[in-house]
Structure formats: C-alpha cells, structure tokens
TrEMBL record:
Protein encoded by which gene: pepN
Swiss-Prot/TrEMBL cofactor(s): Zn(2+)
Origin species: Nocardioides taihuensis
Name of the featured protein: Aminopeptidase N
Family: Belongs to the peptidase M1 family.
Single GO MF annotation: alanyl aminopeptidase activity
Catalyzed reactions per annotation: Release of an N-terminal amino acid, Xaa-|-Yaa- from a peptide, amide or arylamide. Xaa is preferably Ala, but may be most amino acids including Pro (slow action). When a terminal hydrophobic residue is followed by a prolyl residue, the two may be released as an intact Xaa-Pro dipeptide
Alphabetical list of CDD domains matching this protein: M1_APN
Domain Peptidase M1 membrane alanine aminopeptidase per the UniProt entry, residue ranges: 230-442
Domain ERAP1-like C-terminal: from-to ranges: 515-762
Record-listed E.C. numbers: 3.4.11.2
Ranges for domain Aminopeptidase N-like N-terminal: 120-190
C-alpha cells in the first residue's frame, strides 16, 4: 500500500452523485489465517452510473491480484493511495477485485489473535470509519448503502458469524463454506465477519433467536453470565422496538466477545465486543451496569446508525450521542439498573467536562473535511457531552414529543441516509417548538457555560457565564430547594428554570438552606453554588436524598477542582463524606475512582500519601458491606499506603483479580516479590493473565522493568488497546518521575507511528498511554508542538493535546497544596 489517501467530503459527494451501488457479493477466504496471516477477498460490486464514460475510483488497501471492470482488466498490485481507478463507466457496471491482505495482526480492519492458553486462532473484522477498504474493495463511504451477500471460507472446526445470522454450510476437504442470506442495505462500515473455534450459546426470547459467542478458554465465564446477557438483550429489543414503533426486523441477534478487540461495535445483527466484558471473576455491580449500558448502546445503533445512517461523518456525533443517551434511557426503564443516570453522571460527566475545557474543544457538530478528521472526533464531546445535550433536548421538548419524533424519523427514513436537519425537523414538528436557536447554540458552538447561583437582596438569580465569544446556551433545568433538619436535607421545592440569557430571576427557594443547581442533571453545565450551599455540599453532600443529588455534590466539587477553585484535599474530604453515606451501587465504584485519581495525581507530593491513606481508610470501612465489598477493595488496591492498609488488602484480596491488583500496588511501592507473581500466574485460569503480570512488572520502579514495558506497548504492540489504560496507569507512576522522564521523551518522538494501525490504536496509545508524569521543563509545550507535525494523525494530535491540558491542570493543583 502506498500513502493511502483519506476520502474527503467533496470526493464523497461527487462519487455519490455519479454512482449508485446495488450490491456487494463478498467472498472472504480465511483458511490462510489458521496458521498464517493471509486473508483473501473477492469483492464483486454491482453498481450503476449516471454518466456513461465517466471515471471514478474504488477504495482498496490490499494487494490486488486481479481487477476486472465490465470484463476489462485493470491494473494489479498495490493501488496508488489505496484507490483503483475505474474509467469508462457504463450505465450498469460489474467490478470484480481479488485482493490479499497480510496485515492481520494490527487491529485495523481485520485482526488475527492467538489465545496464549491453548493456541487457538480467532479472527474479527471491524470497519468503522473507513477500514472496510483494508479487507475488500469497496466504495467506502456511509451514503453508498448496498445489499451484502457474504460468503466465508474457513477451517471446518471454526464457527463463523456475520450480519444476517443463519448460513448454509458445506464442507469439502476440511474447508467449510458459509453462505449468508443477503443483508438489508448497509453502509460499508457495518458488515462483519468473525471466525474461530468459538463456543456458542443460544436462547429464544420473545421470538428472537439470541446468540452469544466467546473463545473456548472463557466459556465457563460466559456460561456464568449468559442468563443475564440474554435477559438484557431481550429486554432491550422489546423496549426499543416498542418505543420506536419498529421492531428489530431480523429474527437472529448475535453478540460475539472477541479477544484483543477495543470496546464494542454495532455491526448490524452481529455486535462485536471486547471479551474483557466477559469478566474472569464475578463482576462488580458497576461492571455489570456498564456492560448493560454498552449492550443497550450498541443495540440502539441497530436503528440509529444501521437502519438510518448519517450521510457523512459530520453527523457522526449524532450516531454516538443518540446511542449514549438511549442506553441511559433504556437502562433505567427496562433493566434492574434504575440508577443508571447517576452512574453515567459519576463516570462520564467529569471527562466530558474535561474535554470541553481543553484547547482542543470543538462544536459537537462540525465540518468534517475527510475521514481522518472524523476519526479524531471519537471523543468525550461526541459521546458523553453529546448524550447530555440530547438529554437536555428531551427536557426542552418533553419525552413524549421526542419519542414521537423518533418514530416518525425511523418510519420515514428506514434504510436510507439522513442529515441532522431530518431529525431536528421531526422533533420540531412533534413538539411545536422552533429549534433553530437550540441547534445553533448547543451544536455549533463549543465550551461549557458556568451557572452561578447568587443570593441578592431581591431574591435569587442564576447567572450564566459562557466562554468568551458567545452568548449563553438555552438551558432548561431544575433547582432543588432543600431545608436542613435533624434527618438531613429535605426537598421542599423544585424550581423549573429556563435560561435564555445572562441573568435569570428565580421565583422561590429564598428560605432554603441548600440550593442544588441542575438537580436531576438535565443540562450540561459547570455549576458554582452560592457560598452557603457550596459549604453544605462540600461538608454534607452525602446527606442529600437522591443518588443523582449526591453525585452532583461530588461532580460539582470535581468541576471546581478542575478549574483550580478547590484543592485536592477539599475534594477528597467531600468525596469521603459523600461515599460514607452513599447507598446506590451505581456510583460507588466510579466515585472511588475519582477520589483515587485526585489523591494520586492532583495532590502535591507532600500530601499525596496522606490523601491516599484517607481514601484507603474509607475503602476499608466500606468493605464491611457485601454490596460494596468488591468496589471498596478495588479502591483499596489503588490507595493502600500504610502497613495496616496493605495488610488489610492482603487479607481481603482472595479472588485472582484482586490479587493481581494487590501485586500491582506492591510493585509500585517496590515491595514486589517475583515468586508471588509466578504463583498467581500459575493459578489464574484467565487466558490473559500474562497481561496482568506484565502490568505488575511495568509498575516496578526499575529501569529494566520500564524498558520491557515500553517494548511491549510501543515497539511490539503486544498489549491490546482495550488493556492500555490500566497498563498506562501502572507504568506512569507519580513517585517515579526521574525514571520515567526518558520515556516521556520517547513518547514524544513516537507520535508519528501511533496512528499507523488505525483509529483504536491511535486513540489508545495517545490517550490511554499518555505520560501522566515525567519530562524535563517545558516538556508539555514541546509535546503539543510535536503533535502538530504533519506526520502525526489527527486522532493522535487531538488526544495528546487534550491530555496535555489535563496534566497542566493537575500540576497547577499540586502547586496550590
């Protein structure tokens, strides 16, 4: 492949105006992947053209062995810039391209993984945003939807999954051929093939044939969780089908948990997940809730993304924001996770706010010049901020109107492509509200408004302070008025407020002791309470009567810490107070994570151990209750500092996962015994236990350990993207700055190579493995400059500069202690 070119929006418009694709007949020969790295593809594309004699191109990043257009041969070899020129088009055309791809170990388009425990080979494909061209020749843009007929050749003992579910299978000489029924019209980024000796579990629920797949070595863990996953899947399909007035139109719905996969992907009818969601030990409540929300997120894409697809990537945010909003909505409505919005507030809001405060902030909707730029928008503004903005839209127009708009939208645009205007038009029609100002404010500008509650002689005023250069956004929110009594805080009045300018007079609440701005978390804003309310939130926020209210106390304090208005000590004191009282499992584990992060990275070295010890004592006290035990012990494994705390961790850490966490903490503290690691490695049934061992060694304060860890992550890419965040936390330790400074410099020098294996690797290396510490004076300035070099991908550039801003804020906070 020579210098592959990213498709521009203008090129996509021109190509879409010229051609219409009727179908792909795609044959993937995976027999070469059983013992090697060769994937062969034959892509037969049937398409029409509006102008005879015109020229266009098809995308292909494989080595072309044969290409024939309408019976005429085209050039073979590596297509220049990843494009095969198609000259002299006819009104009706057939293109056949036979190609081979041998880059099957890098996670771009196709990935071949070998299970270290038994040597079994598993293969998955994942094509968003434009990696379908890595595997087969195609017109790789979302608005050229077509029917896919998929055929797969693989070893006889392999199971194969694809979008349309059931396949006819024939076997000759040890090679099985799987022929799938035609798909509905799909964009090129959502077809999928997964293959390998998977274990398959099936269940029929409400007329749907549901499938779960996992590699053999994780079969017992999947069997443990299968009933929960089947139940969640059935509930989600029923809920969405009813709410959208459009049942999922295919009887079969499969979910494949694949090794070394990052996150999850909404392939139509066949969702691919990282198999890290099949937890090796029984999962915590927060892990179960997250898994349910991811399941519902990907399922929402079946309607919003797969059936109805954005025309171009400038509306990518809408795909992801909708699915992120929908999973919280559905999670509370149809599952046991009835406090899902509180968990989302604790988990996602801090990072959405951080991204929106960074110099890399951008409007939710923005012009996307090419696909490489689109890949850089897979961020906390697209996902959690976008979801918060849709939640605000629902508050603005009402849920009934919003749901009716969705029903009309899906009915009118099923299997077609749309733009934002199509959805906004339906919402405006259903609600009777003019949304032009709402769209312009929320979607076309960047930055977060600060909402400050002021007590004045003539009553209460909510003051909206926007970022420089724009007016305040329109907010519809609630303010909870609470009185302070012997039993804690009591809600006496809920004030509905619509913000349309800088100052909004508040009727009521003047006699309340605590005014909770944005109660119920209906809008996305930074909040500055009045002084009396702030003092109560910081000291007694845990006494608020709702999970969202208590979490708002914590996230409000976190926002003030992030803006340099609180110290790490003040935030930790607030969090300890909240979590001492907290009863909602959804928020305990993510809130403990915020406390650990603050004590670990935001506190000055002189107080770091004291704050970590304070968090560790909280964890020990929480561990006495069975419903909090696992979350508390995980927090303890990150914060244990004193001999007594480490001893408590040793006593309670009995499951393999907790034992690994304990070893990682001991390694960081230079109290590591290699024999303990070898013993646990031998006892742990997890096929990926070697990665936990590598993580423990990476935490050690030794030059040899750091060199080996760097080699595994950056040079050899042995640590998959879905494990890199935990690995990065172990590697970049605050007490090891001198040891890590050379690696901070190596990180800077490596930026150009981080994006060479696709979006997921670029995001993970630049973000999850970003240097939390280390570097000479001026390092962050030089790192930001280096990220701007021409050879650095937009994905890497965006993530590095965003993380730089977070690190600068930590350094400012440490200087204030």
């Amino acid at each position: 492949m020579s210098n592959p070119r990213s498709l521009t929006q203008e090129e996509a418009r021109e190509r879409a105006a010229l051609i219409e694709v009727q179908r792909y007949d795609l044959e993937l020969d995976m027999t070469g992947l059983a013992s090697g790295d060769e994937l062969r593809a034959t892509s037969t594309i049937t398409f029409s053209a509006t102008a005879s004699g015109a020229t266009t191109f098809v995308d292909c990043l494989g080595e072309v062995e044969e290409a024939v257009l309408n019976g005429k041969p085209l050039a073979n070899g590596s297509p220049p810039h990843g494009r095969i020129e198609l000259p002299d088009l006819e009104p009706d055309n057939v293109l056949v391209v036979r190609s081979v791809q041998c880059r099957t170990a890098e996670g771009q388009g196709v990935h071949r993984s070998v299970d270290p425990s038994d040597g079994e080979v598993y293969v998955w494909t994942s094509f968003e945003p434009d990696d379908a061209r890595v595997v087969f020749a195609c017109f790789d843009q979302p608005d050229l939807k077509a029917v896919f007929g998929i055929t797969v050749l693989g070893p006889e003992r392999w199971l194969v999954t694809s979008n349309s579910g059931h396949a006819s299978i024939s076997t000759v000489d040890g090679v099985s051929t799987w022929v799938y029924a035609d798909t509905p019209p799909l964009s090129t980024y959502v077809p999928v093939v997964n293959a390998g000796p998977f274990v398959e579990l099936r269940s029929t629920r409400n007329g749907y044939d549901l499938g779960l797949f996992v590699r053999r070595s994780l079969a017992p863990m999947l069997e443990r969780d299968a009933e929960e996953l089947f139940d969640l899947t059935a509930r989600g399909l029923a809920f969405y089908g009813d709410q959208f007035a459009l049942p999922f139109p295919q009887s079969r719905y499969d979910q494949v948990f694949a090794p070394e996969f990052g996150g999850a992907m909404e392939n139509y009818g066949c969702v691919t997940w990282s198999d890290r969601f099949i937890h090796r030990d029984p999962p915590s409540y927060a892990e179960r809730e997250l898994r349910a929300l991811v399941l519902l997120h990907e399922m929402a894409h079946m309607w919003f993304g797969d059936m109805v697809t954005m025309r171009w990537w400038d509306d990518l945010w809408l795909n992801e924001a909708f699915a992120e909003w929908a999973c919280g909505w559905a999670g509370e409505a149809c599952t046991e996770f009835t406090d899902a919005w509180a968990g989302i507030l604790a988990t996602d809001w801090p990072w959405a706010y951080a991204a929106d405060c960074a110099p890399t902030t951008h409007p939710i909707r923005q012009e996307i010049a090419d696909v490489a730029t689109a890949a850089a928008t897979f961020d906390a503004i697209t996902y959690p901020k976008g979801a918060a903005v849709l939640k605000q839209l629902v508050a603005f127009v009402g849920e009934d109107a919003f749901v009716q708009a969705l029903r009309n939208y899906f009915r009118n645009h099923a299997w077609a492509n749309t733009t934002l205007d199509d959805l906004v038009g339906e919402v405006a029609s259903a609600s009777g509200r003019d949304l032009s100002g709402w769209v312009k404010g929320w979607l076309e500008t960047s930055g977060t408004d600060r909402l400050t509650l002021e007590r004045q002689d003539d009553g209460l005023t909510l003051v909206a302070t926007p970022p420089a250069g724009r007016a305040p956004l329109p907010h519809r929110l609630r303010i909870g008025a609470y009185t302070d009594g012997d039993d804690g805080f009591t809600l006496v009045e809920t004030l509905s407020v619509e913000v349309t300018g800088v100052e909004t007079k508040i009727d009521g609440g003047s006699n309340a002791d605590l005014m909770l701005v944005n109660d119920d978390d209906l809008t996305f804003a930074s909040v500055q309470p009045d002084p009396a309310s702030l003092e109560l939130l910081l000291s007694r926020g845990g006494e608020l009567p709702t999970a969202v209210g208590r979490t708002l106390a914590l996230t409000t304090a976190w926002g003030l810490l992030y803006d340099g208005e609180l110290t790490a000590q003040q935030f930790v004191d607030c969090g300890v107070g909240v979590l001492t009282c907290e009863t909602t499992e959804s928020v305990i584990e993510p809130s403990l994570g915020l406390l650990v992060d603050t004590a670990d990275l935001w506190a000055a070295p002189s107080v770091r151990d004291r704050l970590l010890s304070q968090v560790a004592d909280l964890c020990i006290s929480l561990a006495d209750r069975s419903d909090r035990r696992l979350a508390a012990l995980r927090g303890l494994a990150q914060s244990a500092t004193t001999p007594a705390q480490l001893e408590a961790l040793s006593v309670h850490a009995t499951e393999p996962n907790l034992r690994w966490r304990r070893l990682i903490r001991l390694a960081e503290l230079d109290q590591f015994d290699e024999s303990d690691l070898e013993q646990l490695l031998a006892e742990d049934p997890d096929p990926d236990a070697w990665m936990n061992a590598a993580r423990a060694r990476a935490a050690m304060p030794s030059a040899e350990a750091k060199a080996q860890a760097w080699q595994a992550v950056v040079d050899d890419r042995k640590i998959p993207p879905d494990f890199l965040y935990e690995f990065g936390c172990a590697f970049w330790r605050p007490a090891q700055e001198d040891l890590l400074t050379p690696y901070a410099e190596k990180f800077l020098q490596s930026l150009p190579q981080f994006g060479d294996s696709g979006t997921m690797w670029g995001l993970s290396l630049a973000g999850a493995f970003h240097p939390a510490v280390g570097g000479e004076k001026g390092f962050l300035d030089r790192l930001s400059d280096a990220a701007g070099d021409d050879g650095v991908s937009p994905v890497v550039r965006q993530k590095v500069r965003e993380r730089n801003d977070r690190r600068r804020r930590r350094e400012i906070a440490r200087a204030r202690e």
